[in-house]
Specification:
This protein is mainly α. The chain has three domains: 69 residues, Serine Threonine Protein Phosphatase 5, Tetratricopeptide repeat (Alpha Horseshoe), CATH 1.25.40; 55 residues, Serine Threonine Protein Phosphatase 5, Tetratricopeptide repeat (Alpha Horseshoe); 85 residues, Tetratricopeptide repeat domain (Serine Threonine Protein Phosphatase 5, Tetratricopeptide repeat, Alpha Horseshoe). 78% of the residues lie in helices and 0% in strands. It has 13 helices and no strands. Helix 3 packs antiparallel against helix 4, helix 3 runs parallel beside helix 5 and helix 4 runs antiparallel to helix 5. The chain is globular, with a radius of gyration of 20 Å.
Length: 226
């Protein structure tokens, strides 16, 4: 494997995604082996995903999924594809990718939590709760699954007291995650505690001031308060 490709991979693993992408794009792949070409496409897809350039990400991730042979890389690419599909409003395609992984015998907290999210987006709330619960069966302390299940239980008002407990546990584990702060604020709101909900939603907005869902939560809280 060429030194420049190795360096780009090191940059990616150091979370310097923009610099890694720049280096990857400068590589001349004409002399690459098939393995090196697959590695290049894989990291291009991941870099574009991390930088939220989703159309470009799909181009490379789908290339790896179509032509790849490494089972672990295929698993990671299908997870990345599902994420891109979910955040770009193509939740059915996201569900397809994740269900395909499950049918192939894969099982992980990340996989179950991702599938739960796609069900939530499609308003299939019982399925979302089921898969977040499966994720927590694999890891009772996973903050993504704790937050996801807590948020769904709060938002749908299926169990607002349990939702508050779960969201608190997620924030305890990652106190600077704006999504978790927002969920905790929303759980407080659903429990009727408006002053406390404002505190947590404000903290979330301080970290992600332009996030539309957090902004909408704050508007809902302010309307309820007035």
């Amino acid at each position: 494997m060429g030194g420049s490709l190795q360096n780009a991979i090191r940059l990616y693993r150091a979370r310097r995604f923009d610099v890694a992408l720049e280096e990857l794009l400068q590589l001349d792949s004409r002399s690459f082996s098939e393995e090196e070409k697959a590695e290049l496409a894989y990291y291009l897809g991941l870099c574009y995903t991390k930088l939220e350039q989703f159309d470009d990400a799909l181009l490379y991730l789908e290339q790896v999924v179509t032509n790849g042979k490494d089972p672990l890389r295929m698993y990671q690419c299908r997870l990345a594809l599902a994420y891109v599909y979910a955040v770009t409003g193509r939740s059915k395609l996201a569900e397809f990718e994740l269900q395909r992984l499950i049918s192939q015998g894969f099982e992980s907290v990340q996989l179950y939590a991702a599938l739960a999210y796609t069900f939530y987006v499609q308003k299939q709330y019982e399925d979302a709760i089921d898969y977040y619960s499966r994720a927590l069966e694999l890891d009772r302390e996973n903050p993504t699954a704790l937050n996801g299940l807590g948020y769904v239980l709060a938002d749908t008002e299926r169990d607002v007291r349990r939702a508050l407990i779960l969201c608190k546990r997620a924030v305890d584990k990652k106190p600077h995650n704006p999504a978790y702060l927002d969920s905790l604020g929303w759980a407080h709101f659903k429990n009727g505690n408006i002053p406390e909900s404002k505190i947590w939603i404000r903290r979330a907005l301080d970290l992600l001031p332009d996030h539309p869902e957090i902004q909408e939560h704050m508007r809902r809280i302010l309307r309820a308060e007035s």
